[in-house]
């Protein structure tokens, strides 16, 4: 009986200890919260340490830049001092050589006839020397050429290069803006001209301002008249700086008609899409943008403020393409 009682007491003690080791849900939650807080503290400490390291690295970088700037300033100061010394040296040399020049003058005074010079002769002496003064340093009188002032037919002074003004934009029979190039090709065959133009246009559609240019059609069935059709879609950049970019998407067609010793190239169907999505934007054909009515001032002596840049950009692009191809086929 005594043994049984002792066994029961031992069992009760073991159960009590086990119950003490098992945490209630509230205790488990509290423990988890403490562990989370400790983890957050450790994370904050790690972040602070990383930030401190970053600040330290930045400070070291700034310090290195300052040292570099200081060294450059010292170099510039030394260079300035050297140039100053060189200037003083040159000045002293000039002062030392001045008396030698003056001593040679009295030698000419022994000939009185040379001292007298006619006033009319002085006026026409373009070199600025005196015939009776012995050895002197000659000076050349520069003739100022008057700048030619260009005017319109009505006598209005031009404020812009004439190539952008009246007569620069031509309309075809349909009333559309069209630029045309007709040129001989130095005796080249149609096939030779075709290859030159096709290679040029293949590079043209891949220029750095390209948007979606392509060569959709060619026709070589007629050996006496071969055709290349190119659709250009590119940016016309009017002004570009570090903080701003003024440009317009510009679409146009280039059609080359080729025969033996001849190239006919037209630039037509020009459309501008400017600042799409903005209140100042527009999408208009060339007829409503770069013709004289829209792109020139009332006096026709200057480009208009709004559309003038489109006229200049179009003419410059046309001239570039036409001049390039003219040189290539005439080579």
Structural class: alpha+beta
| CATH structural class of the largest domain | Alpha Beta
Q: Which percent range describes the beta-strand content?
A: 15-25%
Named CATH topology of the largest domain: Alpha-D-Glucose-1,6-Bisphosphate, Chain A, domain 4
- Return residue spans where pLDDT drops below 50 for at least 5 consecutive residues: 100-118, 120-124
Helix/strand order: HHHEHEEEEEHH
The pLDDT mean sits at: 83
Say how many strands there are.
Answer: 6
Kindly report how far apart the N and C termini lie: 129 Å
What is the overall number of helices? 6
Could you tell me the radius of gyration in angstroms?
44 Å
CATH architecture of the largest domain: 2-Layer Sandwich
Shape type? flat
Give helix % range: 40-55%
Major beta sheet, specifics?
6 strands, antiparallel
Integer tally of domains: 2
Keywords: Signal
Biased composition (Basic and acidic residues): 82-94
InterPro entries: DUF4468
Domain DUF4468: 182-272
Description:
The chain has two domains: 26-104; 162-330, 2-Layer Sandwich (Alpha-D-Glucose-1,6-Bisphosphate, Chain A, domain 4). The protein is α+β, with helices and mostly antiparallel strands and 331 residues long. The protein contains six helices and six strands, in the order H-H-H-E-H-E-E-E-E-E-H-H. Strands 1, 2, 3, 4, 5 and 6 form a six-stranded antiparallel beta sheet that branches.
């Amino acid at each position: 009986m005594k043994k049984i009682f002792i066994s029961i007491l031992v069992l009760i003690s073991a159960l009590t200890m086990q119950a003490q080791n098992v945490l209630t849900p509230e205790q488990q939650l509290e423990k988890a919260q403490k562990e989370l807080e400790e983890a957050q503290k450790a994370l904050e400490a790690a972040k602070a340490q990383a930030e401190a390291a970053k600040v330290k690295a930045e400070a070291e970088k700034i310090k290195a830049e300052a040292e570099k700037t200081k060294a450059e300033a010292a170099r510039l100061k030394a260079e300035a001092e050297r140039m100053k010394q060189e200037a003083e040296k040159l000045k002293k040399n000039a002062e030392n050589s001045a008396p030698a020049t003056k001593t040679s003058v009295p030698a000419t005074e022994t000939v009185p006839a040379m001292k007298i010079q006619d006033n009319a002769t002085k006026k026409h002496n373009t070199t600025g020397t005196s015939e009776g003064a012995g050895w002197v340093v000659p000076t050349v009188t520069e003739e100022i050429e008057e700048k030619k002032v260009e005017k319109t037919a009505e006598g209005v002074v031009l404020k812009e290069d004439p190539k952008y003004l009246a007569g620069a934009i031509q309309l075809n029979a349909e009333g559309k803006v069209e630029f045309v190039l007709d040129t001989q090709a130095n005796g080249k065959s149609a096939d030779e001209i075709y290859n030159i133009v096709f290679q040029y246009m293949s590079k043209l559609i891949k220029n750095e301002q390209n948007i979606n240019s392509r060569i959709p059609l060619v026709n070589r069935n007629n050996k006496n008249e071969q055709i290349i059709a190119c659709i250009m879609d590119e940016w016309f950049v009017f002004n570009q700086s570090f903080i701003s970019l003024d440009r317009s998407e510009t679409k146009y067609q280039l059609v080359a008609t080729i025969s033996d010793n001849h190239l006919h190239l037209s630039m037509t169907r020009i459309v501008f899409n400017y600042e799409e999505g903005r209140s100042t934007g527009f999408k208009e054909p060339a007829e409503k943008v770069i013709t004289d009515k829209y792109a020139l001032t009332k006096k026709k002596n200057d480009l208009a403020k709004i559309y003038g840049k489109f006229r200049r950009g179009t003419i410059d692009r046309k001239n570039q393409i036409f001049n390039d191809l003219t040189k290539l086929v005439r080579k």
